[in-house]
Known about the structure:
The longest helix is centred in the last third of the chain and has 22 residues, at 366-387. This protein has two domains: 2-178 and 365-387, Rossmann fold; 181-362, Glycogen Phosphorylase B (Rossmann fold, 3-Layer(aba) Sandwich), CATH 3.40.50. A seven-stranded parallel beta sheet has the order 3-2-1-4-5-6-7, with helices on both faces. A six-stranded parallel beta sheet has the order 10-9-8-11-12-13, sandwiched between helices. The N and C termini lie close together (7 Å). It is built from 15 helices and 13 strands. The chain has helices at 14-28, 48-53, 70-87, 97-109, 130-144, 155-163, 181-185, 191-196, 218-231, 246-255, 273-278, 295-301, 332-344, 346-363, 366-387, and strands at residues 2-6, 32-37, 58-60, 91-95, 114-119, 149-152, 172-174, 204-209, 235-240, 262-266, 282-285, 306-309, 324-327. It is α/β, with parallel strands linked by helices and 396 residues long.
Amino acid sequence: MKVCHVITRLIVGGAQENTVASCLGLRKRGYDVDLVIGPQTGPEGSLRDQATAAGVPVIVIKELQRAPNPLRDAPACLALQRLFANGRYDIVHTHSGKAGFVGRLAAKLARVPIIVHTIHGPSFYDHQNPIGNWLFRWAEQLAGAWTTQFVSVADAMTARYLAAGVGTPGKFVTIYSGMDVDAFVGARRDEGLRRSLGIVKDDLVVGKIARLFRLKGHEFLFQAAPRICATVPRVKFLLVGDGVYRKRFAQWAKEMGLRDRFVFAGLVPPHEIPRYVASMDVLVHLSLREGLPRAVPQALACGKPVVAFDVDGAREVCLDGQTGLLVEPGDVSGLAAAVIRLLQDRGLADRMGATGRGLVRERFSEELMVQELDKLYRRLGAETRSTKPETRDKHQ
């Protein structure tokens, strides 16, 4: 089969890592896979070189940009339609809100037989303004009519979309976002790395992996930090990731008198993330909008317990009381208490980490993700051929 994956930006992020891993894995299984992206700028870094170095053809559509803009969106749709028609793709598989809508519309216009869309996170959510929320919900309802199959990275995404009137139950399948589990399972605490970050041997480290951006929840960690520091004097907070809010957060730490407690690691290449996670004692995930955060299974694969806001798919991997502790979104007191509990009760933390490692091994490998995508594509191809006998099987 000939497949085209489409995503708006190939920055360093969970949805993007998922997409690149899917393309690489499918190509190894014999699929002819292209990857279409829009242009990108900013401090979030890029996975484009990684994809091209691994042999995935990357096609840039300059009009495909993240912010809604009819002056660019219409030309982007037309450019994608031409690409899909000329490329004679069997499947177009879209990711992210913007590429998801424009890409699916273009695929419909180009009469692509199978249109798949992965929901990495909700396009509509409570923290949008009401008009934006309605508009994105309406767009997903409209695009849902053109979608052959939705892939949800968590059961929570399926429930949210069905409740919003998007699609029907038979159109959804959950495929967890795969990762190189062995890289995390095999990672060990690196004292040299910790020293380079200003973390001494006896420090206890609370880590967070996320872009320094809105809705990622860093502000709640800053608010909880004074109480955590007062109870656990040896604690440090390791922030992995970069973004437009870095100066703001650094200023907050300074104003709170906690500048020496917060370590800004900046942008870290994906292959280095296991070393950083292995150097943590607890990982917190505090996003207010998420599909299923990859940082949570990554931490558990390293044997590290997790404290997470109970948002979207977090509870499907942060099993409360088993692999970590769930906290109500925005509950700063609950966040502080949960972190303190895991830092003080190392036996509990170790047991949760061990349980989490087993869960991640079972559900979150790249191999399993690609295997499930392969099964899905084959099923959809067979169903398409059964309704259109003239369609030729192109899978080699």
